[in-house]
Amino acid sequence: MSLFITLEGPEGAGKSTQARRLAAWLRSAGYVVTELREPGGTAIGERIRAILLDDDHHEMAAMTEVLLFAAARAQLVRQVIRPRLAAGEIVICDRYADSTLAHQGYGLGGDLDELRRITYSATGGLEPDVTVLLEMPVAAALERKQRQSGDAWNRLDARTIGYHERVAAGYRAVRAAAPARWHTIDATAGVDDVARRIEAAIRPSLDRVAGVCRPSERGPS
Ligand code: TYD
What we know:
- This protein is α/β, with parallel strands linked by helices.
- The chain has helices spanning 15-28, 43-53, 62-86, 97-107, 112-123, 138-149, 161-177, 191-202, and strands at residues 3-8, 33-37, 90-94, 130-135, 182-186.
- It has a 5-stranded parallel beta sheet, with helices on both faces.
- Helix 2 (43-53) runs antiparallel to helix 3, helix 3 runs parallel beside helix 5 (112-123) and helix 4 packs antiparallel against helix 5 (112-123).
- It binds thymidine-5'-diphosphate.
């Protein structure tokens, strides 16, 4: 059996740092782990990412944005995620389909049912086994992101605080629809604390991969 883990939450909540930490923790225990980010994770997806984030693309229509995220995801699922899961490995993805519902749905006001249909076509219905939601107040997350990004502030970062508040509420609504796979972690704690809480949340799911990916005898500590 395999394990598909996604990380979600606002920009600046530390998802990419925590994805790296989680992957390192699992690898140290002998699991085979693939780390990915959305949009991206494939050569085609990284080119789509550049189009999506380009600051000059102010004229991008909401549906174009939706379909580009879906196109990158379709490629990632077929080229990487499904094959790795079929090999019994662990896949960690920094953002996935819940980001589309939260951002293009709740954030931009897109039709949720239509977004679900498009997402289903892109993923073939592949859903994460576990989703970690890193939660922190929107203003603090944006401030952190701005501090870290400097000149790398992109087209999507530049959206209003109202947009980011709607996205945060969107995550809560999406989580409420399938609470079993979600683990909500307070991202305002220190990096080490957050990492430990994520590890504790993931640990019970490792039973799914035990025996396939050669965990060390005592498992991750
Ligand atoms: P990135 O710089 O990777 O931000 P983060 O570190 O917060 O993930 O840029 C990805 C951006 O794309 C981010 O603003 C969220 C947005 N996004 C969507 O709007 N919809 C989606 O489906 C996905 C996957 C990402």
